[in-house]
Sequence to fold (449 residues):
Amino acid sequence: MKPKPSRSDINRRRFMQSTAVASSMIPYFAWSEKSLASPLKNDRLQIGCIGLGGMGTGDAIDSVNQGVDVVAVCDVDLGHAESAKNNDKIGKGKADIYSDYRKLLERKDIDAVNVVTPDHWHVKIAIEALEAGKHVFCQKPLTLTLEENKLIRAACQKHPNLVFGVGTQQRSEGNLFMRAVNMVRKGLLGDITHIQIGIDGGATGGPFPIAEVPSNLDWDMWLGQAPKVDYRQKRCHGDFRWWYEYSGGKFTDWGAHHVDIANWATGNDTLGTGPIQIDGSDSKHPVAFKDGFPLVNDCFNTANDFAVNCKFANGMIMEISSRSSNGVLFTGTKGRIFVNRSRITGKPIEEKWDDGKYGDEDRVALFNGKPHEWHKSNFFRCVREGGMPVSDVFSHVQTMNTCHLAAIAARLGRSIQWDPTQETIVGDPIAQSMMARKQREGFEIPNLG
Fold:
């Protein structure tokens, strides 16, 4: 968590053994220095899983493989929930089924939850889970809007004793992405001047017919905060990401991974960092748009062909493109490297510029003082021990700022200005109005700020 490969594209077994012994905690954000995991309710961790489609089922199995018990499963599609309950790799028929996640959150015996719903549900469920005293593992992209970035950050600041992990598992890839990040951070490539991020093109399709809602699906609950519309099969389940109503298309789907790596490497993952200008003029959508909104409601509408240039205050350009090889190409004043889920290449790699400069201590440092291991193992370690997971909310919010800005600029087909300190779009009322969404009555997101 293709066009969109699943996380099974990564050989998870490579991460199951840690590569170092934990050293003293390296605080990643000031508030976390005294952060401790809240006392567990049981000797063995018990979790609830909210959202049991393909990715949700995979995350549930992954959790069980880390030595925890799935005691409850929840999905607005009863078929998904029943399939997970009866999956021998998850609950072996013992997990309780819920159709309303709020009932699951009321359970006092649940220590943590997996949230693996469509994107437009992530933040509301996650905040309510924190308020219920649960640790949270939530799939990427964590947010739907720039406003949601602030809401989830405020919620996590309010609950520093609860661990929140994000499903950006590329941060755990020691031989590929972590190695690239280490090289950039140590200046081995010189000053980074350009980053090419390939995230592939979005899907096209439609018009799709109105259909009868399946008897096992609560369509109104599935829609949640989004506008109420007729059911079309291609709006639901795995195809939700091709509709701006529920997602950001490839900008947030793959961008949540590759922009994250770029930001992590260059230090643009902390509060106040980010691009200052985002040019979406070279973007195409499968349907006509006006003022950033599609003119039809029966076709996929997220960008399918684009090259969005994000300019940073130091002059660095980050190009987010559907026309480049899937992965991240770092270009510096001394050299360049390319990295994706299958390879890391370039002269600095061939000549081993990082020989003796990337070892166990470096991996532990990237893991905020924890041993390098598979990202789900890291999450549950932090639940038990305290500390900040390698895939944390605060850096992810910075990534999502860039991803959402790219989507807004593409939707408008022009350049927009961003103030990363004030976290606002400047001098463009239409673009600024797209920082938030009107939430349907009854599905409002709590504001804990």
